[in-house]
Write a structure and sequence with these properties.
transmembrane; transmembrane helix; elongated; single chain
């Protein structure tokens, strides 16, 4: 058993140096940067579609209660603010060409990483609380048209979905994105060091 533990510890401490050309690494980095930019654009597009759907709901339906209007106002406002925050983060990685300005891009990438960390932590909870208040106010009028059983089902399903998104989905997305960005920063630093060595 001790032999196995010794072999295991040797295996864990042994690192294999993988030699990869700067061209291959550069093409990997381009692909990774493109993937992050695409996901960022898709997030922004999803938020804009949500904004437009709720705005259309507000414009084309006649609501009687002030609580519904207040709920929709809060919901639309929080979606607009969150979309602006996403757009600002997107500009950090979209405005710099990493082949022309590697140091600026690396600084932007690190800023983007911090921005995303704030977005998934503190800002997310502000967004979730504001969205919850908006939905609660919206539900005052809307649920009055349903039977008590349907009202309970709508409330339970809505808040179960929000809880699911706030816990499992948020943590998984945060972990995956943190790994992607950290790996990209590491690759980019390696490319930069290889270019310095070659020059």
């Amino acid at each position: 058993m001790q032999e196995f533990d010794h072999i295991q510890s040797l295996w864990d401490t042994h690192k294999v140096e993988v030699k990869i050309s700067s061209d291959e690494m550069l093409s990997q980095v381009k692909k990774d940067v493109g993937g992050i930019r695409t996901r960022s654009v898709l997030n922004i597009a999803g938020m804009i579609l949500s904004f437009l759907a709720i705005a259309a709901l507000w414009l084309f339906f006649d609501f009687n209660s002030w609580t519904t209007h207040a709920g929709l106002t809060i919901t639309i406002t929080v979606i607009a603010v969150y979309t602006f925050i996403l757009y600002r983060g997107h500009r950090l990685i979209a405005q710099n060409d990493f082949t022309a300005h590697p140091k600026e891009f690396l600084a932007s990438l690190k800023s983007y990483q911090l921005d995303r960390f704030k977005l998934y932590n503190r800002l997310y909870w502000i967004y979730a609380v504001a969205l919850s208040i908006g939905i609660i106010l919206y539900f005052f009028e809307m649920l009055s048209y349903y039977s008590p059983l349907m009202q309970c089902a709508a409330i339970i399903l809505t808040f179960a979905w929000m809880l699911f998104c706030s816990t499992l989905v948020r943590k998984t997305a945060m972990k995956r994105e943190k790994e992607r960005i950290s790996l990209l920063i590491e690759k980019f630093e390696r490319i930069s060091s290889q270019f310095k060595e070659n020059s």
